[in-house]
Amino acid sequence: MKTLEATFQIITPMFLGGADQSAKTIRPASIKGALRFWWRALNWSRCLATNNHDEILALRSLHDQEARLFGIAASDHAGGQGVFLLQVCDQDIAFAEQAFNPLGSGQLYLLGQGLATFKNGNSCLRNAIKENGHFTVKLIFRPTTSDQDIQGIRDALLLFGLLGALGSRARHGLGSVAITKWSGPKKIAQTAQEYKNLLAGLLTDTQSNAEPPFTAFSHLSRIDLSKTDANALKLLNVVGMEQQMYRSYGSKGNFGNTHKVNGKEAEQNFADDHHLVLDATRGQHIDRAPERVVFGLPHNYYFSSPTAQAYVNYAPEGKDGRRSSPLMLHIHPIGGQFVAVHTLLPAKFLPDLAQIRIEARGSHSNVNSAPDWQVLHDYLNRFNGETLHGSR
After folding, report:
1. Could you list the pLDDT tens digit for every one of the 392 residues in the chain?
2. Is the separation of the CB atoms in 239 and 172 below 8 Å?
3. Is 12 exposed, middle or buried (0-12, 13-18, 19+ CB in 10 A)?
């Protein structure tokens, strides 16, 4: 039997759970879902090229290959059907009712509604798998599996261990995992340069010139080493505060006429968004989407007046939808430090003819989606970090 084993360290608290949303264990289905995501992201450019840049044919080819490799359904016990079985073993993990103590404002911002609250003191609403735990993933390939198929899955597993995360708010830096050892042919990165080399080797053939129809690597993608710190949770808080400062309009509170964000004067980079949505809460018709929707949907607004609230969302067929953020944060240990790694994967933002719904005061406006990707590039540029892949 052909096998592959990899051990991962949990870098930041992981909000991973079943139907009761309670963290109990790391399931094979969760790992397999992550591997599917990174395999698709890596292989889109290849499929497009081998199908003469016909997007429909490329999508069909990618779907067929994914089904063959990973299977159609997944089992919690053995990872489902496909060319391999997946086991999660040697789980050395602990649990916490309050993953952050104290919970910093930046961490609270990244957790968002549903995972944390600022009422009666900042606190988490769900338990989590604590940082610093370890687990091992074992892949057992069928004897007839080709070396090419094994390499493709092996690359996805390695990329998951360099950029990935598990659980709720995985794209916000929560549940970050780092591969620490494996039975693959490449040496696990111990230095910043080795980390860069591993990523560069994986992303060599991901430079499609077309905008992907789903979240995948292309010539539009970008990976930045944004910021470092000796403490992973402190780094998460600092990055969260930076994003809050960039996006927030601020609150007057007890500051008189000056709007503040975490005690600092607000930058108000998106004042037009604030005014636009405030107009919606006053009953005015809205004809465009806020610029900040490019961070992902839903995207809600709360003003000082309890009646002045607005909800910005993608509403397919009148039902609430979701557009995950194209910007992903990952915290990774490198050379005794932790680095905040941002991965930006621009792609078709919403399906053709889909609109964004802005709801306020019992009425709504449907507006077209035309995301401005420069909003995310400007956010990454404020860190003045190192761009490993793509351009600014």
Report:
1. 799 999 999 999 999 875 566 678 899 999 999 999 999 999 999 999 999 999 999 999 999 999 999 997 654 544 557 999 999 999 999 999 889 988 999 999 999 877 888 776 778 888 899 999 999 999 999 999 999 999 999 999 999 999 999 999 999 999 999 999 999 999 999 999 999 999 999 999 888 889 999 999 999 999 999 999 999 999 999 999 999 999 999 988 666 678 899 989 999 999 999 999 988 888 888 889 999 999 999 888 888 776 678 889 887 776 677 899 999 999 999 999 999 999 999 999 998 888 898 888 778 888 888 899 999 999 999 999 999 999 88
2. no
3. buried
- The Cα 280–Cα 286 span in angstroms is 6
- 143's tokens: 């004897």
What are phi and psi for residue 355, nearest 5 degrees? -125, 165
DSSP labels for 118-164? -TTSSEESS-EEPTT-EEEEEEEE-TT--HHHHHHHHHHHHHHHHH-
Please give the Cα distance from 169 to 379 (Å, whole number). 19
Peptide bond into 298 cis (omega under 30): yes
Distances in whole angstroms, Cα of residue 169 to Cα of each of 55, 115, 247: 30, 9, 18
SS3 4: strand
